[in-house]
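CHAIN AND CONFORMATION:
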Amino acid sequence: MKETSNSKDAKTIGLVKRSTHSIFSDESPSPVNKITTNTLETSSTSKRAACHNLFTEESPSPVNKRVKMKQFSVLMKNIFEIKAQNCRIIANQERIFNQLAVNGNNCPDKSLENEHSIHYKKFPLKDNDDLDYIEGLLNDDSFYQYLSKIISMYGGSDIGTFVKTCLDNLFTNSLGTNITITGKINKCFGNEPKLSIKTLKLFRVICETGRKKFPNNYMDDIVIKITSSWLRHSKERMKRKEANA
């Protein structure tokens, strides 16, 4: 009986040992442990990928951003200048036609006035053909006086701004590239023959009208300086306008 009892105790102890060994040495993880491990590994991989993207993602260079901002600023400035110039021209045209409507009844020959107004619609002159056409009309004293009256209504607080307004309204930038003060060829601007604005009747109308409009501060030097600058920058204005069109 005693041996039988000892045998049972030995079996019990052996069973407990095997169970304990199975719990602490089982090589295959339980399903719960396996899911937890996979989740942690996935989370760790995602974090490493996020960090990699954070430090390797390409971003615009500060230099490129500054260049683009500068280009945008120049573009907007050019657009505003063109819009302002167009507004000045439109305002001058409206003021002129309104003044003509008020003074229309004072014209001794209304049919002649209407004919001159049709010719005036050619302004601003686009090319040499338009210029030749107006130069021919200016041989007629009635048209000469009519154009002088129109020009006298152009805006300008002094002789300099008045002359610039006249040039903006009477000449296009394209025609301005074919004209210089003296007519001499400047190799910097090409070898094409140029017209001398000093020889044009149209320029004479501008000068005589300016002298009457500003008798106290009219100076030939100022007129020539403003005109020369306007003609010299005609090509630049034309290219800028085409680029912004």
Q: What stands out?
A: The longest helix spans residues 62-103. Residues 86 and 168 are 9 Å apart (CA to CA). The longest strand covers residues 179-180.
